[in-house]
Amino acid sequence: MAVTLEEAPWLGWILVKALMRFAFMVANNLVAIPSYVCYIIVLLPLRLLDSKRFWYLEGMMYKWLLGMVASWGWYAGYTVMEWGEDIKTISEDEAVMLVNHQATGDVCTLMMCLQDKGLVVAQMMWLMDHIFKYTNFGIVSLIHGDFFIRQGKSHRDQQLLLLKKHLENNYRSRDRKWIVLFPEGGFLRKRRETSQSFAKKNNLPFLTHVTLPRVGATKIILRALVARQENGSPAGGDTKELDNKSKGLQWIIDTTIAYPKAEPIDIQTWILGYRKPAVTHVHYRIFPVKDVPLETDDLSDWLYQRFIEKEDLLSHFYETGAFPPHKGHNEAVSREMTLSNMWIFLIQSFAFLSGYMWYNIFQYFYHCLF
Question: Which residues are listed as membrane-spanning (predicted)?
């Protein structure tokens, strides 16, 4: 497409701005991620003495790192509007988020909109594609205890066993509270045709804006983390003991992400900021886990129904520009999510000052040794 003389200055500015943003992102990663790793190494003795305090400090640094990623989109004008139920009310309880997946920007969107939900981000565990292990953020996620899942039928059973073991070893021992899961098992554009073919063969609804979810990971999470009742008392101990330790997984948050004109934001756009400012819309519905069936067939039906409802929510949004009102309400209420510019300034300053400090420390030891 030819560029007119009127458009040339604007396109030139977009290119310069994208290069500047990319340079800042690289610098941000070069100081923040090594600093995080260095602080973790220094704090390792605390892990032996006071594990809970160690994971609290690690979680706060993890939250700051995700806040930096959120800030890249925030300053490009990519903001979030929240709809539905207020998930702040359950921020101290254990919950699992079931999220539709359209693009890599979904992860960045969640990093942004969960920043003002107390300690949720600090105590969160992500289930993400194994390819993320090999990105710049992979070392951070490995330390934090996120789970990298390998897609494909040939890996499925093994991955579910690994997930069960990972939850048993890392979830409560690291004081995790929330889990983020994308049950569709891939991006919408990649899975839509396969999902529609499966739906046709099994007499299931034909979905366009979401795909039919895979039940395996959800089943493992619920069975591993829900505090079951046996003979009137919680499994694994009495009521008092369970209250002191954990009440178990209490909520499922059905999370639906919608982009204007159904044009999702990817990670490249989030970093470079070459698209015009846009508002991403996130809708929440909260379900008590006690109302969710744990048996495979019933859980599959329950999960399918949630994604059929997501389809309806997204259809309504793309037609009207808004989500429908919550049941029992006449009007849908939206809430603009904001990030504090002062808080962003403080965490970015801490990252760059930490990077400068660690550079000088290593430089000192290098000169002492060599």
Answer: 20-42, 54-75, 343-366
Give SS3 for 174. coil
Residue 95 in contact with residue 226, Cβ under 8 Å?
A: no
| pLDDT tens profile 8-57 | 777 888 888 899 999 999 999 999 999 999 999 999 999 999 999 999 99
Q: Which SS3 state, helix, strand or coil, does residue 94 take? A: strand
Closest among 219, 115, 119, 111 to 167, alpha carbons compared: 219
Q: What's the pTM?
A: 0.89
Q: Rounded to the nearest 10 degrees, how much is the dihedral formed by the CA atoms of 68, 73, 76, 78?
A: -150
CA 343 from chain center: how many Å?
20
Quick one: which of 117, 121, 107, 99 has its CA closest to 257? 99
CA distances from 314 to 209, 250, 260, 262, 311 (A): 7, 26, 11, 9, 5
Q: Which ranges of the chain does DSSP label H, i.e. alpha helix?
A: 8-49, 51-74, 105-113, 138-144, 153-170, 188-201, 216-225, 239-245, 267-272, 296-320, 341-369
Contact 105, 125 (CB under 8 A): no
